[in-house]
Write a structure and sequence with these properties.
Length: 414
């Protein structure tokens, strides 16, 4: 394996939950020494098992925590009391040798602790400072708490526009928005790190769950300015401007999603696939200008929907593939775990825990040809490397023992 691209880079992660941890995990996979700062009670992410449908016993919380591995694999851990002056000074010693600081603390908490960018940049001018917030650093809601369920999915337009009209918003899965914004922050930090390597000047890199959602929804947000064109969301999919971009129910009650962004290109192909050659080039439905002029979008939708209900998923696969239309079965999580395409592209890793359990863990989605597939080390326990890291900072055995006795640093779980 060739040298990892971020070997020699030191990252301090002062963060909880998922978004900022995603950034740190990406850097750790690339060879950076990522030191996660954690309180003795532990990151709240250690205790989210009931929400996700995982075991909530103590062994699972601390020793077989698949969520913890996903966000914190390949990192080291320093559990330190930041309210203790000695602990705060040790943290500053850590920053002296760091290239990057990642945080998702709320701005007012960072300011109270003297850990905001403006304060730190005078002492650490080369430091790249990356921060994730819920709603951005400015505006009336800058100090509100934010999770992806609220700042990303709700405020960012997903729940109101992507639901079927007349129904409640769809169910969300934890971490979707967080992973998205975490990788955005990684991209910005890497640009700033490159700049710092050339100039010796640090930088502050900021993004938020809300801003990321706005960017993701950019095409439709911009199009919403044309109020006299198209259908206002939320919609019934039958009434969509392009009725061919829909999910179709099959004979056994599963759904196949198709994507045909240019109606005129794909209409005849689809009619062939569903066995309705009699509708090929039918001027009532084709081209799309005729479809809209005749107001027959719902009619063609119903024709296709009824056709799909006559065959199973396995029967439809070769028929749709033959006409080169993009499609996919709407898979559940259990099916994804055994998806051959995912395994062929190293989406997963098999980890065997100390209790003998073998679990499938998800890798990050960015791959490097020369570096090869990153090793996958479990996420650290609370303060697992506290003693080693304090030694690296120059503290003596006696000082470290005193810090442990005083609760300045911590090793173990509670």
């Amino acid at each position: 394996m060739s040298k990892k691209p971020l070997e020699g880079v030191k990252v301090v992660e002062l963060a909880t939950f998922i978004a900022a941890a995603t950034t740190g995990r990406f850097f750790a996979d690339l060879g950076a020494d990522v030191i996660k700062i954690e309180s003795p009670k532990g990151d709240p992410l250690r205790y989210t098992a009931p929400t996700e449908g995982r075991p909530a016993d103590k062994w699972s919380l601390f020793h077989e925590n698949t969520t913890w591995e996903l966000e914190n694999g390949n990192k080291r851990n320093l559990s330190i009391n930041m309210k203790d002056p000695a602990g705060k000074e040790a943290f500053f010693k850590l920053l002296e040798g760091a290239d990057i600081l990642i945080t998702n603390w709320r701005v007012q908490a960072l300011e109270r602790a003297g850990l905001d960018y403006e304060t730190l940049k005078t002492r650490f001018p080369k430091l790249v400072y990356g921060i994730i917030t819920g709603y951005g650093e400015y505006g009336p809601d800058k100090d509100l708490p934010g999770f992806d369920f609220t700042s990303f999915f709700a405020r960012g337009g997903y729940l109101e526009t992507l639901r079927q009209k007349g129904t409640v918003p769809y169910n969300m899965g934890p971490g979707l928005g967080d992973h998205n914004v975490g990788m955005n922050l990684a991209a910005g930090i890497l640009a700033a790190l490159y700049h710092a390597s050339k100039t010796g000047e640090g930088e502050k890199v900021q993004t938020s769950l809300f801003e990321t959602a706005v960017h993701n929804m950019g095409m439709m947000i911009q199009a919403a300015q044309y109020t006299d064109v198209g259908v206002k969301y939320p919609i019934n999919i039958r009434e969509a401007t392009n009725p061919l971009n829909a999910a179709w129910e099959t004979k056994e009650g599963r759904f196949i999603q198709t994507c045909m962004p240019d109606y005129n290109v794909y209409y005849n192909r689809l009619m062939k696939a569903i066995g309705r050659e009699d509708l090929i080039d039918d001027e009532r439905y084709y081209p799309v200008a005729n479809l809209h002029k005749n107001n027959l979008g719902t009619e063609i939708y119903d024709i296709v929907y009824d056709a799909f209900k006559t065959k199973t998923v396995d029967e439809w696969r070769p028929l749709i593939t033959e006409v080169d239309i993009a499609f996919s079965l709407a898979q559940n999580w259990e099916e994804i775990l055994v998806d051959e395409q995912a395994w062929a592209n190293d989406c997963f890793y098999k980890m065997t825990y100390d209790n003998g359990a073998e679990r499938t863990l998800v890798r990050l989605p960015v791959k490097f040809r020369e570096m090869g597939v990153p090793e996958y080390n479990r996420g650290p326990q609370i303060g697992e490397q506290s003693v080693d890291i304090m030694k690296e900072l120059g503290y003596t055995e006696d000082q470290i023992k005193e810090f442990l006795n005083n609760g300045t640093i911590y090793v173990g779980d509670q």
